[in-house]
Input
Amino acid sequence: MGKNPEFVKFDKVDKSYDGKVLVVKDLQLDIAEGEFITMLGPSGSGKTTCLMMLAGFETPTNGEILLDGNIISNIPPHKRGIGMVFQNYALFPHMTVYENLAFPLRVRKVEKDEIDKKVDKALSMVSLNGFESRMPGQLSGGQQQRVAVARALVFDPAVVLMDEPLGALDKNLRESMQYEIKHIHESIGVTVVYVTHDQSEALTMSNRIAVFNDGKVQQLSDPAVLYEKPVNSFVAEFIGENNTFNGEVVDIDKDKCKVKLANSEILANPVSVKSKGEKTTVSLRPERALINPTDKMDNMFTGKIEEVIYHGDHTRVRLNLLGNSEFILKVPNSTSNLELKVSQDIKIGWNSLDARALDPK
Amino acid sequence: MSSETKQILTTDGIPLEISLKKAEKKNKIKAFLLVAPLLVFLFITYVFPIGEMFTRSVDDKMVTNMLPKTFKAMEKWDGKELPPEEVFAGFYSDFKILVENQTQGKLGQRLNKEKNGFNSITKKLLRQIKRKKIDETIGIKEQIMKVHKNWRNVEYWQAIKRTAPPYTFAKYLKGMDMYFAPDGSIAQVDEDRRIHRILWLRTLEIALFVTIFCFLMGYPIAHLLATLPMKYSNLLMICVLLPFWTSLLVRTASWMILLQQQGVVNDFFVMIGLVSDDSRPEMMYNKVGTYVAMTQILLPFMVLPLYSVMKTISPSLMRAGKSLGGTPFVAFWKVYFPLTIPGIGAGCLLVFILAIGYYITPALVGGASGTLISNQIAYHMKTTLDWSFASAMGLMLLSGVLVIYWIYNKLVGVDNIKLG
Output
């Protein structure tokens, strides 16, 4: 059984609500069978619109959406066989948990015994056995969420869509639900399209992440690549923390370039700059800059500590470095901690490979 | 644990429990005082008039007060044969007092309602008394019996005895086209004289259909209101409420202009050739007029509760229904509709109860076949001045509404009503 790498395909999809502004522009996206793909982006970036088009609640202005090779743009939502978990769960408040789960099976005219079996299986998947006769209003937020997940999966859909399903939960519950959904996905191998604006959620759960901004996919790759090798400054900024320097390329060769800042020069990795004289934003992850490095590093500078913030597992240090007073360092909490004091001068070093020269902001 | 059993004291040594209760009591008194004006108002404007209506509807003291001695003497009479001499003597002395006060006419009228013919025989007796034909020194019974043959008829004396109790439910029976037969049982009035029962049924029928029409028209409007974007829904809301803010009389009058035979609607029908000029349909002074005008007037009472309920239904529920495989109809019927039931209940109950007691509109556009029980009540209040009958019918209407409310509570549950 070969997995179809183009199980869900957005083919040159445009979407406009008012005929003036395109909220989704020329979207080209292939989702493999059994994949967990996350659409990540700030609000208004078009990710939810994409999900709604896939579910059938919106129609594309241009282009086609294909599901397993079939064009589905003209199929109404109830015939698509796509499960969906809504932002506010959308459990039917007048039905018990059992009736909620049985709903998609009953409309498909499944036998009563079969319904009982499937509902039972779905509930045990989210470890909610024994809650069949409860009303949704009697459940906690996390339990409601699980019922919503179980309901979206109970009729064995080919694709499950999740629209910011964990947005209303508190932080601890959200994290445990992330793992739970991830495990469910791994155990049943359903294709999941997940929408969120929470980058840590996306990084934890997904096989691949599509970062949306301005109606376009900015980068589509697995979480590690997305974090380590952002292709443009929006992605670098949006995923994780980021120290930036704005400057101009003064010298460039194959894997190194020299960027001139206001009153100094740094070495960086040319990702999206091609030639001398281009403006660029250099992006550097806080954890890639080290204090008093023992290894040889090709960027070594001295900065002044402006602020020290204790975070438990790590300490954040804000420095003034090369004219950037927002330069953040993360110092892990270990036994060999340094004395860090405000207005102290410290030496900072990083490899030019980690400093990615991207498009200017 | 020791902390559970030990009494907790406040800083000044009073047990906490007691001082909490004290504080609570103060709050309760405050709360009561705040609602006290409303309670007094309710009592004066609601409980008291209803009590007053009830006493008036069953009140039958007039004859009781007019013929005290007669009724005293009648206590011993078995009511099967002609009463003994004492009853006649008692009646004679009661009647003489009435003659002195010149109120014997009222007695005649009242007794005439009980049995036809009393009016004339009391007048005859009056004439005999005025001519001083009655000798008080000898047996009164014989002399009265000579006045008119009906005075020798035991049925007339039985009729007097029936009016003895100071309270009667005859008015209630009359409201249902029934009466107390001479032997005290309950009988139906002749079929061609049963007007009230027709009115009750018609009132129920019109209220029911107006409720159904309001529901059929109000449900889509409320749905549209709840789902349209704000700027359109506000406009639509004003369209719904505008008639609500217009005087009832103005609205009814405008329906009269629209619906009369030479009215706008008929003119339009003739213009487009739907009907010919000489056979314009009658749309007013009958049930049609009542239905049209009442539906329009009561529509906001259906739309508003429905709207307030629909507003709280998340649109994602319908989407969930569809995405789970339900056709739009199934999603509506299984998901959306059950969630609107509290609004439907509230709206229908409101419209039905208002319609069942509606007065002005049926009075103006209803004509003969479109009037309701409330018009009959008003008729007895204003024209026949039979206030006790009007009160009785008013109370019957009120208890009817309470019964409907009770049935509704059994079927749907009042807790499920949502007015906003």
Observations:
- Residues 171-188 of chain A form the longest helix (18 residues).
- The longest strand of chain A covers residues 299-310.
